[in-house]
Amino acid sequence: MAERFQSFGLATPPAARAMLADDAIALLKGGQARQASLLAYGNGRSYGDSCQNQLGTVIDMRPLNRIRGFNAESGLLEADAGVLLADVIAHAAPHGFFPAVVPGTQFVTLGGAIANDVHGKNHHRRGTFGCHVESFTLLRSDGHSYRCSATDNPRLFRATIGGMGLTGLILSASIRLMRIPSLDIVEETTRFRDLREYFDLAEAADQANEYAVAWIDQLAGGRNSGRGLLFTGNHAEHGSHAAAPASAKFSVPLQPPFNVLSRPFLTAFNAAYRWKKGQAKAPRKVEYQGFFFPLDGVRDWNRLYGPKGLFQHQSVVPEEAARTIVPALLTAARQAGQGSFLTVLKRFGSIRSPALLSFPRTGYTLTLDFPNRGAATLALLGELDRMTIAAGGAVNPYKDARMSAATFVASFPEWPRLEALRDPAFMSDFWARTAGIVDPRRRDAEAAE
After folding, report:
1. Could you give the CA distance from residue 64 to residue 59 in angstroms, rounded to a whole number?
2. Which of 105, 120, 152, 319 has minimal CB crowding within 10 Å?
3. What is the model's pTM?
4. Alpha helices (H) along 299-439
5. Residue 411 DSSP label
6. Rg (alpha carbons) of the chain, rounded to whole number
7. What separation, in Å, do the N-terminal and C-terminal C-alpha atoms of the chain show?
8. Which whole-number Å values give the CA distances from 173 to 22, 65, 103, 428, 437, in the listed order?
9. Other C-beta atoms within 10 Å of 380: how many?
10. What are the residue boundaries of the FAD-binding PCMH-type domain, all occurrences included (predicted)?
């Protein structure tokens, strides 16, 4: 149980209770679900506690894994909520289609991608995952199933996309895929000396390419501060249409008793990574899995952080503040003595999501991974929150395991609109910790039970 229904960050307690999707469906259809007792659990790739409900039961959605239909002319695919994006790719790629938006792992479920309104390396071109959702079927605790789209139950449609599983149980969904010439990617790598040079490159890179993302050497200080690599990519005109097996080449079979990703290791790794990747200056064809999902090649890589796990911090700040605040965030982490194994910087475009609560917005987003060192790490994360909010930005809720209610409210002032449409039978530890604290109705409901 602990391993199967754990958050990917491993820093929060695993689910205490779980049930299969079919049992939850029967419970909901019978109107027997208790208040705040349920939460859907996809494939456990959320870093924080938005996928946990310690006082209730999580619903294992993975058995709902059928692809129900695919139109090879239009790219419209219908599938159960438990289908993995890896399965969607394998099914659609031979017909010349690919998900318009993919996150950093293909091992997320369709329902999870919708519930978190995930984003990828091409937000400037395609927006979020929710922008490509045509419709879905939502089962609520009143026993009814609702077809939701931009025209059918539109309020539920907007609340469920990015709603972190709080509006009910997504049973199936229809999404529109994008046509591609091949799965392979023509990748180009550009070195930059510092963040000033990156920002000078970023907008032009977005305009010229489908995909763009930067890796930052977070530990480099002094004259090397902010150095990194900008990766851009486009689907190759000629290449493979056969999806590679969605399996890891390596694995971490056991969790070490300590954090393997120490500062000396990270320093050496960053230097080696920058040297190796920086050699490939000319465009080159690469396999899609290595470009989109590099960490999927190592199963259970999160175990390297040791038994205390990791915290991921992802922020977004407006364009006008980015040149000041992004260097300041990196400096704060470095001065706190915290090393980030994976530090990613990319530019969000202006395409709006249909979601009520969508994390991406116009600006720049910085992602940092830190080993959980207790109070020192929490203090740093709180300072990163403060700096982000002061700059007019937001912190990503589905990557979070500890943000305050004040940070959440400042990041998502529209949260009461989701609370108004939340199914009373559904709750997460994240929502109870943030919205539940600022909403007296939550406290009153708990007191009445």
Report:
1. 11
2. 152
3. 0.94
4. 319-335, 375-390, 405-411, 415-421, 429-433, 435-438
5. H
6. 21
7. 27
8. 17, 12, 18, 22, 32
9. 21
10. 8-180
* Dihedrals phi, psi of 234, to nearest 5 degrees: -145, 150
Beta-ladder partners of 371: 310
Euclidean distance between CA atoms 40 and 36, whole angstroms: 12
Output the CA angle 120-125-128, nearest 5 degrees.
Answer: 45
Total residues found in the chain within this entry: 449
CA atoms within 13 A on the CB side of 431: 28
pLDDT tens track for 41-91: 999 999 999 999 999 999 999 999 999 999 999 999 999 999 999 999 999
Tokens of 8: 């990917």
pLDDT digits (tens, 9 = 90+) for 300-340: 888 989 999 999 999 999 999 999 999 999 999 999 998 88
**Block residue for tokens 């996309």:** 161
What is the spatial distance between Cα 394 and Cα 233, in angstroms, rounded to a whole number? 27
The strand pair at 298-299 and 250-251 is best described as parallel
Taking the C-alpha atoms of residue 251 and residue 134, their distance in angstroms, rounded to an integer, is 36
User: What domains can be seen in the chain, in order of their start residue?
Assistant: 18-60+413-448 (no CATH), 67-179 (3.30.465.10), 185-405 (3.30.70.2520)
- Which helix (H) or strand (E) covers residue 403, if one does? none
Nearest to 369 by CA among 253, 438, 266, 243: 266
